[in-house]
């Protein structure tokens, strides 16, 4: 079963912000060793989450890890994204979908924040 990673971000009117997400997906592809790494946006920018899932499926994904690139557990994380993934589960019952928690729940986020503060002191 081929595994895929779908980096899901909010989407922005800023072309630079959206490009940074594309670059992050490429870096994840290189570092993860997964052959299928796509990105998608919840709103404002393209591709949409359903289009990102479609791209993974077209490339043979049997399992998709939805990497939620949001800091906190707001409505988008607790309702909107899971609803879109549930719709995809119904469309593709043979594919396993896994959602990550938002990045703010990771145990290393505080260390990262403190590292950023230290870098800002320089």
Keywords, please?
4 strands; globular; alpha/beta; 122 residues; Rossmann fold; 21% strand; four-stranded parallel beta sheet
Describe this structure in words.
With 122 residues, the protein is an alpha/beta fold. The protein has a single domain (2-121), classed as Rossmann fold. It contains four helices and four strands; from the N terminus they run E-H-E-H-E-H-E-H. It has helices at 15-32, 49-58, 75-91, 109-121, and strands at 2-9, 36-41, 61-68, 96-99. It has a four-stranded parallel sheet with strand order 2-1-3-4, with helices on both faces.
Summed up, what is this model?
Helix content is 48%, strand content 21%. The chain is an alpha/beta fold and 122 residues long.
Helix/strand-derived category reads alpha/beta
Side-by-side strand order of the widest sheet: 2-1-3-4
Mean pLDDT: 96
Regarding quaternary structure, what we see is single chain
CATH architecture descriptor text: 3-Layer(aba) Sandwich
Q: Strand-residue fraction?
A: 15-25%
Overall shape: it is: globular
Kindly provide the radius of gyration, computed on alpha-carbon positions and rounded to a whole number of angstroms. Answer: 15 Å
Largest sheet: 4 strands, parallel
Low-confidence stretches: none
Annotated CATH topology: Rossmann fold
How many domains make up the coordinates? 1
């Amino acid at each position: 079963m081929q595994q895929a990673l779908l980096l899901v971000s909010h989407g922005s009117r800023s072309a630079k912000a959206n490009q940074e997400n594309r670059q992050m997906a490429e870096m994840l592809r290189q570092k993860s060793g997964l052959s299928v790494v796509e990105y998608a946006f919840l709103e404002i920018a393209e591709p949409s989450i359903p289009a990102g899932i479609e791209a993974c499926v077209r490339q043979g994904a049997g399992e998709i890890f939805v990497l939620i690139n949001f800091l906190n557990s707001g409505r988008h994380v607790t309702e909107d994204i899971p609803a879109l993934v549930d719709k995809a589960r119904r469309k593709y019952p043979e594919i396993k979908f896994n959602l990550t928690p938002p990045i703010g729940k990771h145990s290393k986020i505080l260390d990262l924040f403190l590292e950023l503060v230290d870098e800002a002191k320089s």
